[in-house]
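Q: What would this chain look like folded?
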Amino acid sequence: EAGEELVISYQLQATDLNASSWIEQEDFNGPDVALTWFSGSFEGSDIFELVENVGPDTSTAWFVENTSQENDQYFFSIDGHQIDGEQPVLRFTHQYLTNPGADGGIVEISSDGGITFNDAEGLIFRAPYRGKLAYTTFATVNQRAFWGNSEGWRTSYIDLSPYKGENVIIRFRFGSIGGGAGAEGWYIDNF
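A: My prediction, written as structure tokens:
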């Protein structure tokens, strides 16, 4: 009947055979981070930098400021990552505060040694991009991205099944169109 409340109970049984296993983990702490990751800029001078005492575990994270300048910054894994496993997934934790719809971040994947990169949008299945960016941010029609206010740390998941058996380079990229008031930016941790 309308307005009736119903309580349903269920029991779930799991085994270690179905558990996820870490193939690789990077929390961006330690002296080797600068040797395995590279940051740079296609346009502008504001680049991703390692900052301390931030993140969900108050350690070190990558950060790029959302300035009022026109910028296109990136950081990526130099050596790449071998994609193996039954159901490979990339998980990363991030927080962002950007000018809504104008400035934002994307994740790109290369399977040819960094010659070409493809946007990971269609593979993000948890905490996906928020919406479309202005065309002028990356000069890409209908580019979707993480933008606005994430309202704290969120964890996004990307299905890497299409890349099984390949070595891939993961690139995080942030763009701003300039002329705005600027905002805090984008933090990335626990890759």
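The helical segments are 33-36, 135-138.
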